[in-house]
Amino acid sequence: MNHPHPEAEPDAEPAGAGPLREALAAAAYGVTPSRVPLAAVERRGRLIRRRRRATVLGAGCGVLLAPLAFVALQGTDGGDRVTRPAATVSASPAPAPTPSPSPSVPAPTPRIVEPGERVTAAPGFVLWLTEEGKHWTTPDMPEGQFRSAVDGNIDRSTPGVSLQSEGTDTGVLLSGLYYGGEGTASVVEVASENGPVRGKLLELPGRPGWGVWYATAAPGDSSGDFVPEVTVRDTEGGVYAQLP
């Protein structure tokens, strides 16, 4: 019958261990420990803490800047970016724009005067109109003269022009009635011996159907047998009335 071997005790010390332990203890007592470098350890700890804080801050900034970078990249490289074509350089300069025509100046019309209103045609020559007709004075006849527009001597239903000539050594007053034309009288032209002379027109308010024209000329323009040609034109340039 076999008998089991007795188990070794767990706390049993190996043979020879005691003298070795005593030798190590004696050697340790003979060693003097060096001083601990506390100041260097503290500086090293502060440096490590600063580096950790810097790392944490850098990571936080990176997190904040990441959306901005994404927006910038999206704005510059997105599909909605519009590419503008480069401007082309013309070999010749562009033509200058054509100026728009200026509005035409309206044709003149007769000066409207009140009955009895005096108009000085030239020094010493004064004209005025009444409902009856034309009145005027000259240096030689300051008392005045008159031509009727309503006594039947003129036919206001037919275009016509009359003429009176009053001259002095310094000038000639050509004047008369005009009447019967269609449209609106505008200007008067007198063909004299010394060339064309342009005059003016007077009318009373209310378009009475007649008016007075006058022009000043140089001495001799109506002397002798010469009868000036007088043409009153309308605002369209046509003949309103004419003499002869």
Describe this structure in words.
The chain has 244 residues and is of the alpha+beta class. Among the domains are: 40-76; 111-243, Sandwich (Immunoglobulin-like), CATH 2.60.40. Helices cover 22% and strands 29% of the residues. It contains 2 helices and 13 strands. The chain has helices at 17-29, 38-77; strands at 111-112, 119-122, 125-130, 133-137, 145-148, 160-161, 164-167, 172-179, 185-192, 195-203, 210-217, 229-234, 239-243. The strands form 2 sheets. Strands 1, 6, 7, 8, 9, 10, 11, 12 and 13 form a 9-stranded mixed β-sheet that branches. A hairpin with a 2-residue loop joins strand 2 and strand 3. The protein is rod-shaped and about 175 Å long.
Q: Topology of this protein?
A:
Elements: H1 17-29, H2 38-77, E1 111-112, E2 119-122, E3 125-130, E4 133-137, E5 145-148, E6 160-161, E7 164-167, E8 172-179, E9 185-192, E10 195-203, E11 210-217, E12 229-234, E13 239-243
Parallel strand pairs: 1-10
Antiparallel strand pairs: 2-3, 3-4, 4-5, 6-8, 7-8, 8-11, 9-10, 9-12, 10-11, 12-13
Q: Could you write a compact summary of the structure shown?
A:
With 244 residues, the chain is of the alpha+beta class. It contains 2 helices and 13 strands, in the order ααβββββββββββββ. The longest helix is centred in the N-terminal third of the chain and has 40 residues, at 38-77.
Mean pLDDT reading: 76
The residue fraction in helices comes out at 10-25%
Hey, roughly how much beta strand do the residues contain? 25-35%
Largest sheet: 9 strands, mixed
Please tally the β strands and state the result: 13
Unreliably modeled segments: 1-8, 63-80
What is the general shape?
A: rod-shaped
Question: Helical region count?
Answer: 2
The CATH topology of one domain turns out to be Immunoglobulin-like
Radius of gyration: 63 Å
What's the CATH architecture of one domain?
A: Sandwich
CATH class of one domain: Mainly Beta
Helix and strand run: HHEEEEEEEEEEEEE
State the end-to-end distance: 183 Å
Structural class: alpha+beta
